[in-house]
Amino acid sequence: MLGSWTPAFPGGEILLHPDGQTPGGHAHCGRAIQSKKTVTSLPSDGHVTTAKEKALLWKIDYHLIPILFVLYMFAFLDRVNLGNAKIQGLTQDLKMTGSMYNIASEILFVPYILLEVPSNLIIKRIRPSYWLSGLMFFWGVTTVCQGVVSSYGGYIVCRVFLGVFEAGVFPGCAYLISMYYKRFELQKRLVLFFTSSMLAGAFGGLLAYAISHMAGIGGYNGWRWIFIIEGLATIVVSVVAFFTIVDWPEQARFLSDDEKALVARRIAADNAGGTARMDKLDRPALKRIFSDWKIWCGTVIYMTVTTTGYATNFFMPTILTQMGWLAADAQLHTIPIYGVGFVVTLTCAWWSDRIQHRYAFTVVGLTIACIGYVVLLCEDRVSVGARYTALFLVNVGNYITQPLAVVWLANNMAGHYKRSFGAALQIGIGNVGGIIGSNIFILKEAPHYHTGYGTGLGMLLLGLVLCTVFWYGLGWENKKRDRGERDYRLALPEVDNLGDDHPEFRYNS
């Protein structure tokens, strides 16, 4: 459990928690480390070189990111393969009519939304390697069950349990990654992790194309084999994940004691020299969390892009078939869309960290996606090629913005509990967009889908407005702190548990 590891270092130095707290969590130690001198004297050699920090980052990258990349790739694949199964006979075999497919798409998000916060509270108390690999194993079993159900009701039950087991994956991984890196090192790492969903989309289309030729084997239609094969693969990978997912920095077996100290010093320095902490979950802390306008604004921003993201993933194969391609060819045509999204998103993430700016990149991403929806709304007056290009624009713009929305909020929260609750609330409530996205493409409107395209455009325009509000609000708050208008908080009893409300913390736009 966090807070249980307190080894002493040579010279009487104590390893700090990443948010500036001693791992033991004792109040007297927490107050003592408010001194910036204490924070900067952590490493036993008394000096940190750039080469040393770079070597540490490479080591963390190697051990942390690849397995989480694979884990989320399988999570996303098992969540959205419904769209691939749909055009391989799912709806016909389970006798889905009317809005039954939409319900099957959206029902997953009910437990997914409700269990995000509880899951992030659990992962704070349980080793991430245990919790995340366990979730992966059980959602793999559930995915296999989707392939052998014999009724629509049974399929809905499977989708509900899939939402239960996948609820903690994205917020848990994002939370874990954020505890290893400074704010302007986070974007490219989190985006690299997030782009696994694009690889899942591309690989899902290719895999579905291959599996479509298995129809009839064992008496099963092709869509059943999609779930069975992908579920079995998930189960196998979950066993590997148990041994390879890293735990919190103070528990990490791949780091030496000095490296753990260096991780703690770097993160503490990034949080106003270790003063911006929230290591106690009491009533004042909960009030600060739930009254923080940033969390709610960031949540709605995330919801606007998840609406279009899930709508695209659930219905892209269907849209492509209605452009004239057969089901197997439609699966193949999704691959370059995700491939381009992968390259552009990583490029934008690299530049965003390099110039230490977020807002302009959200504007670029949302604008690109808006242009795509405008073209789709004018589909009667444009060629099939233009409509196909529009899907590239929607997907690329969405993938630039969606992970950026998570990182931007994470950059502007400090303290273990603030980040835990903030990430879970944003991703959990933000996934209401999955429910919206599952219902905006109305089958009777095919092949035009004006409701779907129009709603997607409206949500993205709302996202543009809220990103501007977020950017302005952060700058306004920084100016107030520069003028000393928040210094009164230094006299509050909970001064050592303010999180990013601490007057020394500065927000990033």
From TrEMBL:
Q: Which PROSITE patterns match?
A: MFS
Q: Where is the Major facilitator superfamily (MFS) profile domain?
A: 64-481
Location relative to the cell: Membrane
- According to its UniProt record, where is this protein mainly located? membrane
Instruction: Report if keyword Hydrolase is assigned.
Output: no
Q: Which domain of life is it from?
A: Eukaryota
Task: Cite the Pfam families for this sequence.
Answer: MFS_1
* UniProt keyword annotations, A-Z: Membrane, Transmembrane, Transmembrane helix, Transport
Q: InterPro entries from the xrefs?
A: MFS, MFS_dom, MFS_trans_sf
Q: What residue intervals traverse the membrane?
A: 62-80, 100-117, 129-149, 155-178, 190-211, 223-246, 293-315, 335-352, 359-376, 388-409, 421-443, 455-474
**Which GO terms of the cellular component aspect does the record hold?**
membrane
Select a single GO molecular function from the record's annotations and give it. transmembrane transporter activity
The keyword Cell division appears for this protein = no
According to its record, how does it sit in the membrane? Multi-pass membrane protein
What is the recorded name of this protein?
Major facilitator superfamily (MFS) profile domain-containing protein
Q: Which organism is it from?
A: Oidiodendron maius (strain Zn)
